[in-house]
Design a protein that fits this description.
The chain is an alpha+beta fold. Helix content is 53%, strand content 18%.
Amino acid sequence: MMRGGQTSANPGVKSSILLTIAFRNLMHKKLRTGLTVFGISIGIGAIYFLLSFGLGLQHLVTNEVIGNQSIKTIDVNSANSSVVQLDDITTQRIADISDVSEVGKAYYYPGSFKLSSSESDTIVYGIDQGYENLTYLNIIAGKLPSESSEAYPIVVNLSALKSIGLATNPKQIIDKSVEIIVPLNRVDAQLGTFSHNFRVVGVIDSGSGAEVFIPSTIFRDAGVSDLTQLKVGVKDVDNIRVVRSQIESFGFETSSPVDTLDQINTIFKYLNLILVGFGGIGMLIAVLGMFNTLTISLLERTKEIGLMVALGARSVDMRKLFMLEALQLSMFGAVIGILSAFLIGRVVNMVMNVLSHSRGVQSGFDLFANPLWLIGSTILFMMVVGLVVVYLPARRAERINPIDALRRE
């Protein structure tokens, strides 16, 4: 089949040559190309910056709310301890559920602790090794109770140390003697006030409230028969709903970090859409700029395109040429936009951390998230947009009649 002096056997122009020609065409009009890339970088940079902020804020909120809880866990409590008790029998029944991987036992009661002449209120947790395994206890000095050979080991958190003015150097509290006082008569009238000296074996960072952790066997030996809570580890997140239903059928109340995580994800899904909408305003301007650049380039090079076709290039090669130009514009703009958004985000994050430290916040934080999937998805999105924008100019370039183009003055 003949078209414009070509045969179907014509191999056309190699893609590598078309890529070089496309790049040189862009560099021939440096100012116009630079302004187009600048517009694309602003549009895609705005979208990336806002998405990065939304994801960073989501991670920050999730870490703050979920804290040291594993996502594959279920907290089990008794709604009415006089009717159903968290005792050894119910613990074994829950452990026998097929999808349960581990069960951790815990007691927790309000109490106080004394160190030298300082005293402060705290929540006293009695935990076993299963509870340790299912809970992320961020140890910053020393070790956990199960790892210690002490008869009465205790782990305190930073908030407890702050309450007595010792948070500046957590290591100095290790091996100190601490007296724990828990009024167990509030739990069971037959029990008195528990009081004993413990040796500090570790310090953790577990939140804003004062907390101390001791072995659960100490409460059992003190006469407390029923547990306060069970932490149940599930083999797979997808099985949490089934396991919770089985546990609740025993008469217990359950909760899981998955509930909170689902609510957080739902809120931020809509927030991210709103942020992308704001960034899309800049993206619209960038798209119009790219379309204008490619259209003007087509009009300026009509005679050149006709000459290339007359010399053996195929019409489809002209379409590829404009597609490659659009992809190069998209790639340059996306990379520059993402890099600029990343640098601006780092500066903003640094300023916010400095301000928070000046107001007494000790731990650092990241307001922006930059996962590889976001970077790759943003670049891919911009390249797809570039192909959509270049569709009409590329089609027009493909349909140019070389004879009519060469007659142009």
